[in-house]
Amino acid sequence: MTPVVRTEADVQARRVDGDSVTEFELFGPGPFAEAMTQRVLRCRPGRSLPRRDDRCDQLLYVLSGSGRIEVEDRSEALAPGTAALVPAGKSWTITADRELSLANTSVPAPPGPRATALHRAPGPWSLTRHLGAQEKERATSDREFEVLFSASTGSAGATQFVGYIPPSGAPEHYHLYEEFCVILRGAGAVNLDGGRHELTVGSTFHILPGLLHSVENTGTDDLWLLGVFRPAGSAAAAYYPDGRPAPNNRDEE
């Protein structure tokens, strides 16, 4: 049975000869047209081979390690908590000082029909953003979240955020967007697809639009969750099983 919650141990590693980057594709596009893809990139010390995707934007988040990202003529530092956005069609490389691990979400960019329909006019592009530099916002059940990338910072197709879930968690709900979630800190469980699935650091799961789910925090401190969803919008946009909007629900940023 294909696991609902996946880690690097559930998939086969892939690396191109001569490259410093090993890829773990946790969720591929499968049979879906214009689907998002979720990977973990593990970078050995040194400079990677150039990477480029003409079809998808790349949303990255540093899980551990340090180094630099170069996108054409721009170069910025990477450290835990740094997020980066590489627009479709731009060439980029990663240089790791020591082993560097990143969550990598590929988000379809226009001109595909669905990507075009979901596209939002973006603001000025930011190459990197840093966790803790943005004001936290409120979501359901005393949860908070911090937006890293959205349409206002150059991400026309998706929003990237970190959510902070207090002990106990959130009630069952659904979203109108497609989402990947990666556990950054803490432990808990997700009730999803008819079962309860344990979560630890590095656990990743996929939420389809309209799919009922809930995340439990079984620890004593906040559980940190990295989320990327499309189309871009508000991370507070959630609905209860009867269709009622959850408190703090906002369909727009």
CATH topology of the largest domain: Jelly Rolls
- Global outline: globular
Helix percent band: under 10%
**Number of structurally distinct domains:** 2
Supply the CATH architecture of the largest domain.
Sandwich
Please give the count of helices: 1
List low-confidence stretches: none
Radius of gyration: 17 Å
Descriptive labels:
253 residues; mainly beta; Jelly Rolls; seven-stranded antiparallel sheet; 1 helix; 20 strands; 43% strand
Can you describe this structure in just a few lines?
The protein is mainly beta and 253 residues long.
Characterise this structure.
With 253 residues, this protein is an all-beta fold. It contains 1 helix and 20 strands. The strands form 4 sheets. It has a 7-stranded antiparallel β-sheet with strand order 1-2-3-10-5-8-11, with no helix packed on it. The chain has a 6-stranded antiparallel β-sheet with strand order 12-13-14-20-15-18, with no helix packed on it. The protein has a 4-stranded antiparallel β-sheet with strand order 4-9-6-7, with no helix packed on it. Strand 16 and strand 17 form a beta hairpin.
Topology of this protein?
Blueprint: E1 13-14, E2 21-27, E3 37-43, E4 46-47, E5 56-64, E6 67-71, E7 74-78, E8 82-86, E9 92-96, E10 100-108, H1 113-118, E11 128-130, E12 137-138, E13 144-149, E14 159-165, E15 178-185, E16 188-192, E17 195-199, E18 204-207, E19 213-217, E20 223-230
Antiparallel strand pairs: 1-2, 2-3, 3-10, 4-9, 5-8, 5-10, 6-7, 6-9, 8-11, 12-13, 13-14, 14-20, 15-18, 15-20, 16-17, 16-19
